[in-house]
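Progress against Task 2.4 (sequence-to-structure conversion) is shown through the following example record, which the project officer requested during the mid-term review.
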Amino acid sequence: MLVKQEFSAANAPKMRAADIAYNAIESMIVKLELRPGSPVVEAELVEKTGLGRTPLREALMRMSSNGLIVQMPRRGLVISDIDASEYMNVIATRRVLEGLIAQQAAQLATAEQRKDMLLWADKMLIAAKCHDLGAYMAADQAFDTIVHEACGNPSAVQAVVPLVIQCRRFWYAYQHAGDVEEGARCHMLAAKAIAKGNVELAVKASHGLMDYLVTFASEVMGKK
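Structure tokens generated for the chain above:
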């Protein structure tokens, strides 16, 4: 099974089993392989991930804290719904955090990190032109990871990551309404600004990306 192969402990020896479990389940939720409102069945997750119940339960506890999974009366754990109106609040909160992260990344990133940001932003552009959403999202995640490492602010990163995850899931749910090429262009503007160490432009580009997400969400809500 693909999920077993991708997230097995053998393939990620430096990660804790609970972290491997978290990444595996998060990926399934974000890509809507586990649908909003569906029950969380431990036995099925054990089969899909090839991991034990103990790390899976630890991962599920973390997901409950960031809103991907909710406890429902008489239903147990279920995958949280996607609320388009609440998504605007997610973006508003993310805007503040992303501006700070972009600012600090522009100030603190190493030469190698700046190079990698541009590399992954370029990969996003290529994937967007090929209409390959899977490759686009993988490049987007890699880009975010580098920027988060570069900013040197684990508190801001810890706060923003659950919001980023919610945004990715929203994308998978409503991808038909989105302009992926425009999203890639916004990321490239941010990458170039951070790579140049231009704090003002980095923050401006970060806000531009959030403006794009607002436009996307508004289109989704207008078509629902």
